[in-house]
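Feature request disguised as a bug: please show the residue count (328) next to Fructose-1,6-bisphosphate aldolase in the output. Example input:
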Amino acid sequence: ALISMRQMLDHAAEYGYGIPAFNVNNLEQMRAIMEAADKTDSPVILQASAGARKYAGAPFLRHLILAAIEEFPHIPVAMHQDHGTSPAICQRSIQLGFSSVMMDGSLGQDGKTPADYDYNVDVTRRTVEMAHACGVSVEGELGCLGSLETGMAGEEDGIGAEGKLDMEQLLTQPEEAADFVKATHVDALAIAIGTSHGAYKFTRPPTGDTLSIQRIKEIHARIPDTHLVMHGSSSVPKEWLDVINQYGGDIPETYGVPVSEIVEGIKHGVRKVNIDTDLRLASTGAVRRFLAQNPSEFDPRKFLKETIGAMRDLCIDRYEAFGTAGNA
Ligand code: G3H
Ligand code: 13P
Ligand code: NA
Ligand code: ZN
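Example output, currently without the count:
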């Protein structure tokens, strides 16, 4: 059944677990996520980016999500717009039937230029007024995702600031977060703690200097009733990097957010954990391996089935590690 994200996150807070929010673009990702949720009895957050809408087309994306709800009626599903860059985009998602939207006012309407605080408050507050009138939840973001080592937002083609960010923007300030939540009434708040989108988050395994779980604790202590969201939370599994590189890929050494660090965040108010890159890596690894090992195969269902299995196993791992399992 389609439910609001607020309802889901309130339950997660009451029982002390986190919910992975997986990005969806196609049928295979959708099946993998839903089969994993079904197997582990987990509630599901399906999120669609502007890029996903461009790839699949809004009607296909919407009906894929509706199909997931129809096939798995016993699983609670929140249908979430990821990184909306204006109130108008969020309004369009609400019209399409989404039960939750992210108004990302940390960057301007181009999704690349760091915005000032007053702009962020204004667009987020206006989105909340409109969304809440429709029973739809809102996630806001304060601070800019980016590496504490380099000040860069990461992924070139994805969502993120262009150019170098300063330290002030890279770590969300607890006092400002309290003010922001009070001014906007958001249901959930995405915070900056040193993570970034894509596969190239850290050049070596993160430490407290490059990934600040400490900052999550400080923000949670200041606003204990606000559901916190971690973006850029893929773990970039070494096993999948190895498979990709073994079968013709070329991905340089890189590190993501260890699952154990996310679990620590969940102990301190993190309720939604955004994951996209890990599913992309598992999927690419599965395709490369299958085609290399079965060079005469040409039925796409054969290698796409491999991607479903690889992504499903990864989703099962996250549902179990985050304590989501058993809470559907
Ligand atoms: O926020 C970033 C997500 O990974 C979505 O990426 O814009 O390439 O769909 P995308
Ligand atoms: P990853 O690139 O780490 O998977 O992050 C995804 C994300 O934050 C989507 O909003
Ligand atoms: Na989001
Ligand atoms: Zn994100």
